[in-house]
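### Sample
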Amino acid sequence: MSADAVAEIEAAGETLARARDEIAKRVIGQQTVVDLVLNALISGGHALLVGAPGLAKTRLVETLGVVLGMNAKRVQFTPDLMPADILGAEVLEEGRDGARDFRFIEGPIFCQLLMADEINRASPRTQSALLQAMQEKVVTVAGANRRLPHPFHVLATQNPIEQEGTYPLPEAQLDRFILQVDVDYPSLEDERRIVLATTGVDDAHAEPVMGPGDLEGIQKTVRRMPAGETVVDAILKIVRAARPDEPGAHDAVKRNVAWGPGPRAAQALMMAVRAKALIEGRLAPSVADVVALARPAMKHRMALTFAAKAEGGTVDAVIDEIAARELSPASAAAA
């Protein structure tokens, strides 16, 4: 690796360290969640934040918009939300001379950071309005393709599926999220700090650390980071081992997994492990990064069989078992 490349990676790491410090002013604890969302953004992707209400998901996204200097908009997803409420629509206007013409009014999706709040409370028809935008950064309205601003990222929040009034996200849309970030309840000490910090007169403010151009520069840096053959092999091993119809699939996978992750999971892991190394100030990712990010990159891209669910199995447990079997030091030595 050249000296210029090392300097570029180190500079990006320092910028991200400042961003993390600013975010920590408003989001107490949840450092793993913050790092995973930052990971998704500098990887050039979208993130799905899953957790019960009141765990600072919305606050985190709002803070990210400020710290990253991005034009951010928020859409509250509800059962009566329509696709046009997100994408925009053409309206017929009459000019002073009496001439009539159609004018396109942009929806909130025309921004750099879209917060889709409680995305699973909208109907599947409305959820699908985001599919083209998330993959192609383009929306089609009234037969015309309209390009979205750059960069463009969606950070969606989701309440657990078992809560009343929610709709499961389609598999095709779940696959558009580079990472699923599970937001858990804070520790006792973090919750104490939250209570004291948010119930006083003043609320903490975060300051911008970078702008959209800086974020795009860091995204290019992530793509230029080297990944060794051992890391590539580990990614392919763990993704392919999670497919029940893969030749030589383990009996536990055949028994417990209904459908496994596709190539996008391997692509997501490759980007995410590089981004994790950058965030942590390292020059290259390791196999340990693959293990650490296997759940966020794969769990929303696979599903359990009915029998596995009935027995109390979880996707997390299956992924952990696959990682232990495929990427443990013992298995590597045997290979």
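The two ends are 28 Å apart (CA to CA). This sample (MoxR-like ATPase) is used throughout the tutorial notebook.
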